[in-house]
Amino acid sequence: MPVFHLPMLVLLAGPGCALVSDDDLVARLDLDGDDVPRPADCDDADPTVGAKQTFYVDQDGDGHGSLGEVERCQLEAGLSTLSDDCDDFNADAFPGGTEVCNGVDDDCDGTVDEGVEPAEWYFDGDGDGYGSPFTTQTACEPSPGFVANDLDCNDADATLNPDTVWYGDDDGDGYGGLVTTSVGCEQPVGYFADAADCDDTRADVSPVGVEICDPENADEDCDGLADDADPGATGQAVWYADYDGDGFGDADDVATACDPPLGYVADRRDCDDTNATVGAECRWVKVSAGYEHTCGLRANGVLECWGYNAAGETEVPAGLYADVSAGFDATCAVHTDGTLACWGSANYGAPSPPSGSDYTAVSLAFSLACATDTSGRLTCWGANATDTTPTTSGATEVSVSAHAACALDEAGDLVSWIGGSDATGPFLQVDAAYTGCATLRMDGEIDTSQDARTGTLPAGPFAVMDVGPLTGCALDAAGAATCWGNDDDGQASPPTDAFGQISMGYYHACGVTTDGFVDCWGRSSAGECTPPSE
To answer: Cβ(443)–Cβ(481) under 8 Å?
Structure first.
């Protein structure tokens, strides 16, 4: 049976359903009236915006495109309204560009490098960026090895060019440093090609310097290592193990280094390094050299003697002592309670001292001894004692020898009653020579004109002196000993220790170092130069 569609057509054309006219349809599809209907209109609410436009891809961003067309409502980044770029991968090449000598059509006119001159290029043989004026080429672009300048000083040496840095030698040690520099081809006078000097403010610091131990830990030889880190360092000190931590070290346990190793100290005076309550009480404070024996006084008052002992010269009576003087074959000393004691041979000494308990110092020679008390009164005894001994008080020092007796009064003037003669001071020190008095002046110079047996004197200044029968020695302010006179047994050849006190015997001498150790030199046939264990 056939199908009829009339009823549907009747419905569409029925009452209430008016048809849309062509004009009305156009108006509905073009709301902004710009004659561009939707959907072709990019913005149907803006009559100034119509259909999409054709733009050209601008790959190099120079404002000129060429690589293809795209439709867009508006101009976007990477697009151009122009399609005339002759090289869209070169931003310097576009119509109207500036033609330069580079083998490129920079202005897109179809001609390369028109109206421009090629450049001059210079061969850079050493590759330092500077060319030689002797080898050139003319071209828009340089060949490999050519540069745009001819400023090289030496095209066979890459280290010489206008940028070469020269280093001044400010401390005059022959090596350049970083303090002063100069830049250029020519080497200025006093300048060097390298800065090998690691400290150009010190002439003792350079690659040929000697590494020494110093508080600054300076690298004197410029090898990057200083003091203990440098195996070639010199001037190391001796350090002593301090096991008990009392600040005093063991003299027999040493280490050599610039700086103290952990647990080591500079002071070697510990008498017992296992006991922190025991320090330097055992160290020597005075030594006295006799004929063939020597006596030393320790800080704790213990007195010991060593050497020849035929007459008991080294057999010290019990007690503690404050002063000692070793003579020919005898010894006298002052106890800490101010009493005197003498022992040894009566033939060449004075073993029978006077009584009393206020003595402070004593001096003994062959058969004469003298002592001072707390008032400065002089008391002498022995075979050579005479009534000429000064009776006034105020003596600050006394010294006797085989044929002389000398003292300084409270004004520092020399008083002599045996052998020598008085002299006006003030003097720093007096010492009885063999037959006269030697003095140490305030300016540190020594006068032995009363007895020149010891020979030519050295020039001072000195701080301390001691004159024996044949030899004299003196100490400067640093404790260095200088001796003069007879040296047959080496008694005028002292060690290099720093001494605080010194004593001359007949053929030997001894001194107390500044840290309390006894060192002796000269003849030691009876052991007089060998003190007891430190």
So the answer is: no
Distance in angstroms (rounded) separating the CA atoms of residues 306 and 32 = 133
List, in sequence order, the alpha helices (H) in 213-360. Answer: none
Other residues' Cβ atoms within 10 Å of the Cβ of residue 213: 19
Q: Are 95 and 116 in contact (CB under 8 A)?
A: no
Is the separation of the CB atoms in 313 and 307 below 8 Å? yes
Residue type, 416: S
| Digit-coded pLDDT (tens) for 212-265 | 999 999 999 999 999 999 999 999 999 999 999 999 999 999 999 999 999 999
What's the pLDDT tens digit per position in 182-224? 999 999 999 999 999 999 999 999 999 999 999 999 999 999 9
Would you call 527 exposed, middle or buried from its count of C-beta atoms within 10 A (0-12, 13-18, 19+)?
middle
Beta bridge partners of 137: 121
> Which residues are CB-neighbours of 18 under 8 A, at least 6 positions away?
none
Distance (Å, whole) CA 316 – CA 295: 9
Helix (H) or strand (E) holding 29: helix 22-29
d(CA 219, CA 212): 8
Residue type, 531: P
The closest alpha carbon to 264, from 250, 275, 276, 280, belongs to 250
Buried b (16+ CB within 10 A) or exposed e, 53-81: eebbbbbbebebbbeeeeeeeeeeeebbe
Give bridge partners of residue 340 from the DSSP assignment.
334
Reported in sequence order, the residue ranges of 262-412 that DSSP labels E, i.e. its strands, are 264-265, 284-289, 293-298, 303-307, 321-326, 330-335, 340-344, 359-364, 368-373, 378-382, 397-400, 405-408
CA 298 to chain CA centroid, nearest Å: 38
CA distances to 250, 253, 263 from 238, in Å:
11, 10, 13
The tokens describing 155, both together, are 């095209």
How far, in Å, CA of 271 to CA of 256, rounded? 21
What gap in Å lies between CA 394 and CA 375, rounded to an integer? 6
Strand ranges of the sheet holding 293-298, from the earlier edge strand across to the other edge: 284-289, 293-298, 303-307
Are 83 and 65 a contacting pair, CB within 8 Å? yes
CA distance 73 to 79: 12
pTM for the model: 0.64
Radius of gyration of the chain, Cα coordinates, nearest whole angstrom = 54
- Report the amino acid identity of residue 169: D
Alpha-carbon distance of 228 to 348, in angstroms, equals 56
